[in-house]
Amino acid sequence: MTEKIIQLNWNENDISSEIHRHIKENPLRKKWRVSTNVEADIPKDIPKVRGFADKFPRIDFRLSVFSKNEEYEYFFEAKNLKQKSTALKRRYINTGINNFVSKKYQNGSLIGYLLDGEIDKTIDGVNSLLIKDKRNTEILIIKKNKLFEYYYESNHSNIETLKHLIFNFINIAN
Length: 174
What we know:
This protein is an alpha/beta fold. The chain has one domain (12-168). The chain is built from four helices and seven strands; from the N terminus they run H-H-E-E-E-H-E-H-E-E-E. Strands 1-2-3-4-7-6-5 form a seven-stranded mixed beta sheet, sandwiched between helices. A hairpin with a 3-residue loop joins strand 6 and strand 7.
């Protein structure tokens, strides 16, 4: 954030790539023994025929750590968001929330890259689409904890709670 390198016209993979570079360079990552990669394959039990790897779900970030003889993984899926873009908010739902609800992606959270507008109004727009889809019980609700000033949670019957982090790049872009 202090480098102000993120541009508001970047694709989400551009932003994810830059964030990944900073995660890799962070000395705490080594202290905590966390490994990271982008566009991680999440293998599924699918027939092994030509092109099978193309059917793997791919998620934007995978963080993993070993403790004793076990590896623990956590995943993040990122989506661009703009207050006035229904298409991006719909994509956030269809290829973000829905990929966790369907369990295509598991054990993770969503990251929204806010590139235009205000966070609260953008989340209101996402919630309006969920309500329009008769998914009133799945709306995003603001929460607070020690690590984040605020974040959002949504509740889903088959996966319980999904966390949403919204990164506001509007004021830091060059």
